[in-house]
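Sequence, structure tokens reproduced for reference:
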Amino acid sequence: MRVRLLGSIDVVLDGVPRPVSGLRRKAVLAALALQPGEIVSTDRLIDVVWEDAPPRAAAVTLQSHLSHLRRVLAGSPSIVARAPGYLLDLDGGDTDVQVADEMIAQARRSTDPGHAVSLLRAAVALWRDRPLVDLTGLAWFDGQAERLDQVLLRARHALIDARLAAGERAEVIPDLEDLVRQDPHDEPAHGQLMLALYRSGRQSDALAVYQRLRRVLDEDLGIAPSRPIRDLEATILRQEPALDPPPPETSRAAPAGTGVAPAPATKPIPAQLPLAPAGFTGRIRELSTLDSLIPGRDDGCGTPGPW
């Protein structure tokens, strides 16, 4: 069983999506599924589901919605009453938020850029629409949707990092151009675009991206680019070797007939905003500059915080 929140709210049983009818029922399920296995009090459920206009018999109405949701879950590990409220017992099931969180965490721990790319692609693909799209207009859920939007943005940045570390150059440029169109103030995406352009032999275009960002930030917000991205521009101007793409994986073969096994393959050196620290000898200053463009390093979905 999987409860899906990264788009419309539904339940998938044996690979078949089951719709959940009704705004308030979806809200009850989402409130529990955002903290699976944790008790959510009855008062808190009523507060986030009905906000300032609960029905006269709110507790009874809530119980009716919970009974309906148990039928949707069709006898699978379900909604359990536990004082002072209820919890969603997934026992062997999951939510798409949990799956995305775990994939992103695994990618961050991986030292293999190719493996990280696969994990992050799968994580990003779990977003089918805006998170909790059925509950737009309910304040608490709008806040959760914004949080999950940021998780997706950080995952997309991490995916670009992994692709750059895997040696991609021109291939990532269209995705980065899409990111900067969506948010002209997104400094990490601009930094990644500058690096991808530079590695593709387009130094002047990389510098033009910086100038465009500088102008937009000045005109819209009255601020200058942050120190890390200014340092990146200077590094590009100097054409420093630290910005070169990582070397391909190689293996040193032993002379024929010696009976000596080939030397193990040399791992590529992650060179830009790595998902896990490893092997940056001689590039500490430059990579610290690039890494600091990402605001925060917790790329997981996490939990919605205290009730």
Remarks:
- Residues 250-284 have pLDDT under 50 and may be disordered.
